[in-house]
Write a structure and sequence with these properties.
Layout: H1 12-16, E1 24-25, H2 29-38, E2 42-47, H3 52-62, H4 65-74, E3 76-81, H5 86-100, E4 107-111, E5 117-121, H6 135-148, H7 150-166, H8 178-190, H9 207-220, H10 223-238, E6 252-253, E7 261-262, E8 265-266, H11 267-284, H12 287-303, E9 314-315, E10 318-319, E11 322-323, H13 331-338, H14 340-350, E12 405-406, E13 409-410, H15 413-430, E14 435-436, E15 439-440, H16 441-458, H17 461-477, E16 486-490, E17 493-497, H18 500-517, H19 520-537, H20 570-585, H21 588-605, H22 613-623, E18 627-633, H23 642-649, E19 656-661, H24 666-672, E20 686-692, E21 695-696, H25 703-712
Parallel strand pairs: 1-3, 2-3, 18-19
Antiparallel strand pairs: 2-4, 4-5, 6-7, 8-9, 9-14, 10-11, 12-13, 15-16, 16-17, 18-20, 20-21
């Protein structure tokens, strides 16, 4: 069989379909021209390479000769990778939600050659089953309507297009704390106090919601906010959604206990969860959270890191066509690997039972396992790193924990680590996981933020170095003509100019790297990319930022997204980036840009604030007490004194911006934040200038005085 037109693409998802009998096109003008010339409707299928139901529909229908013959005869078929083209996905997902009230992937769209959708849905079996219409039936009926009653389809397409174009419009409204209170109440009403999480299953981690709750708890003195976040983080860390053997989190849990995940692992989930567990660690000091951070970060470095420094998208749920096969274990397998005695101890600790939970097999978990030992640290294997973590008794899950104890007596932490390493190697030898090895800028930028912050707070240089290497990779490999960032890189090829989320998250990543290193080149790059973001993406008429740049290809609408999904929306991140730049630089340009964006977000979030939790976190930077600290360092040291660096690293990540001025950085800092020109450098030692809510305190020279001022602020 000849490969179709997808054979020359770089997207792993499109390449999965290159041998289908369907005559697929990628999204391109040639496909639409042919549809107009041959007077055919467009069949559009959107998915991604690690999507289980995308695989199911592909096997049932797109590999089927009968379905392919019908599509090839009556339609022009287009396949789109939602991760590679989030703007296209956003347009047609909005159409699906407007028409059906639901959404998901695979996304199935039938539309006119002018891109106007008149049928939208998700997974369709080949033939009608279990309440789902069959794909063959839908395709036949649409072709009949296209021949006999086309005006009805066109009218329907116009109506759906008008509805999509009306979405995302908003006004301006001053941010106010009432939005925070409304969001908190929504989370409180939806919270499950037993298992953590919010609403009914399936349950998604949504770490940006947890970050908001931890910030709200601190600023409003509401302990319940922290409790909700901690209970959720603890339950996830115990459940099957966390890979107890190899580290890292799956995308979501199909049940309320976080036991049975949808097994695909995504880079962005793990990066954002690192940030949530880091914040919990910073607030509580519990080493259990730091350990989960290390295991998750090490998973990324071990499984998802390109040799040039970029990070891959994720790993599939399926192995050998079976969802979860890679992760599932039986007692017999465990005992064969570890031996009878140690195998039984592992099975007792990790819930491996004869009956299992999925087709007679078990998902390693620690739900309800009282009297357990320390967390395993298999995530650090093969990195040449020492094992970490001391368990904080009683802090995780639903029972008191006695480090070193199991149902079978004493077991050392090193022994448990050894168990996990052996089982990890066994899993790798038994079967393998498909890896989506494309590199997406926004996801990489979130990972840079997570690793840079982990390096700073945990004093783990390897994480900061990985973040810096990734930043260098982006600057050298994902930066194209006219200094434009690109959305996707794979096998040496760039694809798709950067979108709003790429630009906005990358600005935040540069700011995080500045915070971790105080190198002014990161600050200068953040400002340059922010200027680009405003120029290319801002809507000067209705406010907010479009997903796609002003020079991007035409779609039926230029989408804007405010509500957060699995990741914070581009508009939410833009608000955070602009607010941080305003606080760091003191420049009117950035203050005005931040005010515009926060007002746009406040108006857009007012009907459902909890759906825009990251935008609320950006508003919190403006509405709660904010502080700016300038540290002027005397002498001509090439590097900051290590003691000073550690002190600055230990300060909170939120509500405080820090600039460090030395003889080496004073000129660059003056360009980035002109107000710093008026802060003299001392001959020796340090002088600290603290401002709180726009009011400056008297400069001090002792670190203890800085701590007192921050505590009083």
């Amino acid at each position: 069989m000849m490969a179709n037109r997808l054979c020359n693409e770089k997207s792993p998802y499109l390449l999965q379909h290159k041998d289908n009998p369907v005559d697929w096109y990628p999204w391109c003008e040639e496909a639409f021209q042919r549809a107009r010339k041959e007077d055919k409707p467009i069949f559009l299928s959107i998915g991604y390479s690690t999507c289980h139901w995308c695989h199911v529909m592909a096997h049932q229908s797109f590999e089927d000769e009968e379905v392919a013959a019908l599509l090839n005869r009556g339609y022009i078929s287009i396949k789109v990778d939602r991760e590679e083209r989030p703007d296209i996905d956003a347009v047609y997902m909005a159409a699906c939600q407007a028409v059906t009230g639901n959404g998901g992937w695979p996304l199935t769209v039938i539309m006119t050659p002018e891109q106007k959708p008149f049928f939208v849905g998700t997974y369709l079996p080949k033939r009608q089953a279990f309440g789902h219409p069959g794909l063959l039936q839908v395709l036949e009926e649409v072709l009949e309507l296209w021949r006999e009653r086309r005006e009805e389809l066109i009218k329907s397409g116009e109506a759906v297009t008008a509805a999509v174009r009306g979405m995302g419009r908003a006004g301006q409204e001053a941010p106010e704390r009432g939005l925070f209170h409304q969001a908190y109440q929504t989370f409180l009403q939806q919270f499950d106090p037993v298992w953590g999480g919010f609403g009914r299953a399936p349950r998604f981690p949504s770490p940006h919601n947890l970050l908001f709750l931890m910030r709200y708890a601190k600023e409003e003195h509401v302990p319940m906010g922290l409790f909700m976040a901690e209970r959720t983080l603890e339950a996830m860390a115990r459940g099957g959604i966390f890979d107890q053997i190899g580290g890292g989190f799956s995308r979501y849990s199909t049940d309320e206990k976080w036991l049975v995940p949808h097994f695909e692992k995504m880079l962005y989930d793990n990066a954002l969860l690192i940030l949530a567990y880091l914040e919990a660690y910073r607030i509580t000091g519990k080493e259990t959270y730091a350990d989960i951070v290390r295991r998750t970060a090490d998973y990324i470095l071990r499984e998802l890191t390109d040799e040039q420094g970029g990070f891959y998208c994720g790993q599939d749920a399926d192995s050998d066509g079976v969802e979860g096969k890679y992760y599932l274990l039986t007692p017999e397998e465990v005992e064969a690997v570890l031996g009878p005695e140690e195998g039984k101890a592992f099975c007792s600790r990790y819930g491996i039972t004869p009956g299992g939970v999925l087709e007679g097999k078990s998902i390693p978990h620690r739900i309800g396992r009282d009297g357990e030992g320390q967390w395993a640290v298999a995530g650090r294997m093969d990195l040449g790193q020492p094992a970490h973590s001391q368990m904080d008794p009683g802090q995780v899950g639903h029972g008191q924990m006695d480090p070193g104890q199991t149902g079978h007596g004493q077991t050392g932490h090193g022994q448990e680590e050894g168990w996990c390493q052996k089982l990890y190697r066994y899993r790798k030898e038994r079967t393998d996981l498909h890896r989506d090895d494309k590199i997406l800028l926004a996801w990489n930028a979130w990972t840079m933020i997570a690793l840079a912050r982990a390096g700073r707070l945990l004093k783990e240089d390897c994480y900061l170095e990985a973040a810096q290497k990734a930043e260098h990779f982006v600057e050298t490999c994902m930066n194209g003509e006219e200094d434009r960032l690109y959305h996707r890189y794979r096998e040496g090829e760039l694809g798709c100019k950067g979108q709003l989320e790429d630009q906005a998250v990358y600005v935040l990543a540069q700011l995080e790297l500045y915070r971790a290193t105080f190198r002014t080149d990161y600050l200068e790059k953040a400002l340059a990319r922010a200027r680009q973001m405003v120029e290319l993406f801002e809507d000067p008429v209705e406010g907010g930022y479009f997903m796609s740049a002003a020079d991007a290809g035409e779609l039926i609408t230029r989408p804007k997204e405010l509500y957060d999904g699995a990741m914070p929306s581009g508009n939410s991140v833009a608000a955070m980036a602009l607010q941080r730049l305003a606080a760091l630089t003191g420049e009117p340009r950035w203050q005005e840009a931040a005010e515009r964006q926060l007002a746009y977000c406040a108006y857009g979030a007012k009907d459902y604030p909890s759906g825009s939790s990251y935008a609320l976190s950006a508003m919190a930077e403006a509405l709660y007490p904010h502080r700016e600290l300038v540290c002027a360092v005397g002498g001509r040291h090439k590097d900051l004194p290590e003691g000073l660096r550690e002190k600055l690293r230990s300060l909170p990540s939120y509500g405080l911006e820090i600039l460090v001025k030395t003889w080496e950085t004073e000129d660059a800092l003056a360009r980035c934040a002109p107000f710093t020109k008026d802060y003299p450098l001392p001959e020796e030692g340090e002088v600290y200038y603290l401002c709180v809510d726009g009011a400056c305190r008297a400069p001090v020279r002792e670190w203890e005085a800085v701590e007192r001022l921050l505590a009083d602020a």
